Amino acid sequence: MAILSAASSLLPFSHGAKRLSTKASLASRTSGFNFYSLRNSPSCAPRLYVSRAVANNGGYTEISENETAPRTYTWPDKKRPRVCILGGGFGGLYTALRLESLVWPDDKKPQVVLVDQSERFVFKPMLYELLSGEVDVWEIAPRFSDLLTNTGIQFLRDRVKTLLPCDHFGVNGSESSVTGGTVLLESGFNIEYDWLVLALGAEPKLDVVPGAMEFALPFYNLEDAIRLNEKLSKLERKNFKDGSAIKVAVVGCGYGGVELAATISERLQDRGIVQAINVSNSILPSASNGNREAAMKVLNSRKVQLLLGYLVRCIKRAGDSESSEEDGGFLLELQPAERGLESQIIEADIVLWTIGSKPLLTELEPSGPNVLPLNVRGQAETDETLRVKGHPRIFALGDSSSLRESNGKLLPTTAQVAFQEADFTGWNIWAAINNRPLLPFRFQNLGEMMTLGRYDAAISPSFIEGLTLEGPVGHAARKLAYLIRLPTDEHRFKVGISWFAKSAVESIALLQSNLTKVLSTS
Ligand SMILES: Cc1cc2nc3c(=O)[nH]c(=O)nc-3n(C[C@H](O)[C@H](O)[C@H](O)COP(=O)(O)OP(=O)(O)OC[C@H]3O[C@@H](n4cnc5c(N)ncnc54)[C@H](O)[C@@H]3O)c2cc1C
């Protein structure tokens, strides 16, 4: 795999052209590629580019900030099909790996480039375990450069800006058009493709009530989890010094809200108060009864205060408006959504927002007359084969796409759906390239899983009606199920060893502390 950008992130912007050239030369030698993109952070860092051919003997190109050479991604092979995958989450990364695992006729094996704004794939269902200390970052958020080392997949760290498809029926020809279109990246590069996979996911929607954008924290990606962990650690240190209770408000009692409330209340124990707010008068309205009851038991045992039947009207800073965000707490004004309840104002040191998301496709710049068909939520509409309607060379999957099941219901935006869609997308690209019929996607609901803390979880498998695995058994089963779904055999193996070693150490520590207790009481 060519590391087109991960290596570049080692370079601070202030480095001079000479030093950059050396790095570019090194990168080109390892990658065999003739362009190199440099960026430190997806959104704000200044960038430099090398886009001229670099000799295979290790020669390099002098570059400067004013480099103006054409910035077109050069595919290594002129003949083989070019597949560009946007987004390296459950949809995108697993499609790339699926393409890699299929058997291809020699001249048809596609060249695959995977573009993501982040340098890491994030296994989002296990972000909670970063707060409980159960997992390390590398285990659930491995670098693309590590994951793709032994594959032919090229990784490019960049942010997608504009799509310029030219496969639209009636505009630029039919399915047999020579190219599928072009993607423009924020760095200025463009990638011409034959097949495009859209898997950009979604982002949290906080602009719903006044104050949420400014004061509430989302819990959606690795950065959110790290920031929350740091905030909790800071408050824990304060609590250690002055004994002040740590107050956490969780807005929303869907899966995300309940998993957060359970994880944080377990972490804080009697040092904190966790309040969870929900508009309906129950938690987990869409979950199975078994999961809901298991979650309710855990939340009650951890003294999580449930404020059910309330809407958050606004969030404000508490006390002195001059005090910095770091120091002050927040006030949440709650408005009853059910009869018989009274308005309330609650205080919190941390407000976590878990409601709503918006697909990222709407943020891409308009792409001329060949715009993609988006539904009201901003998801790309696909046909059953996961091709975007009217765009035979674009596949879309995961949170940024929409497909109705045969019963007319939209597929949920879950990792389970994206993971299964990736399998079909990979296969259907194979079929399209080899002129075979494409398969219609059928979602197979395998059930629901949720974490409820370090030794607790709830699982309701769909294939055994009424069964819910709870407590440590559910916890072990969930972890095993996720271990199996981690990307690449090599990563799974490393994580498996690591988790096994951690649980062995934990068991020994538990045994020791039990022995000490027994000995001290005898
Ligand atoms: C905290 C949390 C817990 C969850 N738990 C579960 C669970 O238990 N079970 C379950 O089934 N689902 C769960 N989900 C939902 C699940 O994670 C998503 O449905 C799934 O990740 C969707 O996959 P995706 O490929 O569409 O998007 P993602 O996995 O989000 O991947 C999108 C990728 O696109 C990249 N990207 C976005 N915009 C750009 C851009 N402009 N340029 C370049 N790159 C870009 C992002 O960096 C990201 O890597 C959870 C989600 C969260 C946030």
TrEMBL record:
Transmembrane regions listed in the UniProt entry: none
GO MF assignments: NAD(P)H dehydrogenase (quinone) activity
Documented EC number(s): 1.6.5.12
Domain FAD/NAD(P)-binding: 82-422
Gene Ontology biological process terms in this record: aerobic electron transport chain; phylloquinone biosynthetic process
Highest taxon listed in the record's lineage: Eukaryota
GO CC terms: chloroplast
Keyword tags: FAD, Flavoprotein, NADP, Oxidoreductase
Pfam families listed in its UniProt record: Pyr_redox_2
Reactions listed under catalytic activity: demethylphylloquinone + NADPH + H(+) = demethylphylloquinol + NADP(+)
Cofactor dependency: FAD
Family classification: Belongs to the NADH dehydrogenase family.
Protein name: demethylphylloquinone reductase
